[in-house]
Amino acid sequence: MEAADLTKAGLEKAAWRTSSYTSPDGGNCVEVADNLPGVIGVRDSKNRSGPALRFAPDVWRAFIAEVKSGSFDVAP
């Protein structure tokens, strides 16, 4: 899985979106930019000027599918 810093290249065109569950202070959420050609940008919603990561769209879709399936859930 490629994860690369997007703070220099391509970030100026990113249209970031957050979950409707994100609190006004950013909470523990990430922002996603899926409008970039061939790449999905991801950054910390509490540190919008900080680094961002980029993932290939198929890798991002696989990650989201695993999250939705509960693969990363931790039992109490």
UniProtKB/TrEMBL annotation:
Pfam families: DUF397 (PF04149). It comes from the Bacteria. Residues 14-68 form the DUF397 domain. This is DUF397 domain-containing protein. It comes from Spongiactinospora gelatinilytica. The lineage of its organism: Bacteria, Bacillati, Actinomycetota, Actinomycetes, Streptosporangiales.
